[in-house]
Write a structure and sequence with these properties.
This protein is mainly α. It folds into two domains: about 35 residues; about 40 residues. α1 packs across α2. The protein starts with a helix and ends with a helix.
Length: about 90
């Protein structure tokens, strides 16, 4: 089960039965670290991914190296390895 689904189940249990997060996690056998963890993904990386897709859609034959050059010209402070990974 995905962590987001586990968090939703724990939240529902806490709201419905008015129990602590510790007890709700114990009942559902969800690690408390999973319940409290917040991802750092998204933010500027999501915007960068969208921009890479736009460039790749208009310039189909460009690879990650040329896309990296175009992003640098637009002012994105991004590494070529990150462009390749995204």
């Amino acid at each position: 089960m995905k962590p987001a689904r586990c968090r939703a189940m724990v939240d529902h249990l806490r709201a419905a039965w008015r129990v602590s997060a510790r007890r709700a996690c114990a009942v559902l056998k969800v690690p408390r670290s999973t319940y409290h963890h917040r991802s750092r993904r998204g933010g500027a990386q999501a915007e960068l991914r969208q921009r890479i897709r736009e460039i790749a859609g208009t310039r189909v034959r460009y690879g990650y190296r040329w896309i990296h050059v175009l992003l640098r010209r637009e002012g994105w402070a991004v590494n070529a390895k990150r462009v390749w990974r995204l």
